[in-house]
Amino acid sequence: MARVPRKQDVPPRAAARKPAPAPAPMAEPARSYAPRGIAALLAPVIRPAFRKRAPAAAQLLADWDALAGPQLAARAAPVKFAGGTLTLACTGPAAMELQHLAPQIIARLNQAVGQTMVERLRFIQQASEPVFKAKIRPVPRRAAPPPNLPEGPLGEALAKLYEGIKPEA
Q1: Tally of structural domains, the chain
Q2: What's this model's pTM, rounded to 2 decimal places?
Q3: Most buried pick, 39, 103, 106, 118, via CB within 10 A?
Q4: What stretches of the chain adopt beta strand conformation (E)?
Q5: Within a domain: residue 102?
Q6: pLDDT (tens digit, 9 = 90+) per residue, 19-65?
Q7: How confident is the model over 70-96, as pLDDT tens digits?
Q8: 76: in domain
Q9: 11-28: string of b/e by CB count within 10 Å (b at 16+)?
Q10: Which residue segment(s) compose the domain that 91 sits in?
């Protein structure tokens, strides 16, 4: 028996196809050149920065020495603030002691900022360097000048030049 083609088996004719309508061009909104407030201009710029770090959190990280006090600031440094958790970098022994003082530290920081912002403290072990660390410079060794320098101010100037050029041992 011969098979009768069904409607599904028959390919559509090319002439019967209609081309898809072209998309209509979108009209640009009319631009207003009227004066606007500065808040309207700055909001799109500032909003992403404040999403990353709230102003109070930025104050907490920037003014850490004044808010925490000299004793806490010498032992720990703020690393990150997110979701009510303040991450502090300190040494291992200091972390144990500060963990016991966490409720007092949280109360002090929230009072200094003026709102309940810090809910938890998280400690990471990281040696922090003091902010105002005194730089100790080694005492320069005076190299013996070469023996064949002339006497007088010229010889002294050449000896200083020799000290500056000679690499340290």
Answers
A1: 1
A2: 0.45
A3: 118
A4: 76-82, 85-90, 120-125
A5: yes
A6: 667 666 777 777 777 787 776 677 777 666 665 556 667 777 778 88
A7: 888 888 888 888 888 888 898 888 888
A8: yes
A9: eeeeeeeeeeeeeeeeee
A10: 49-125
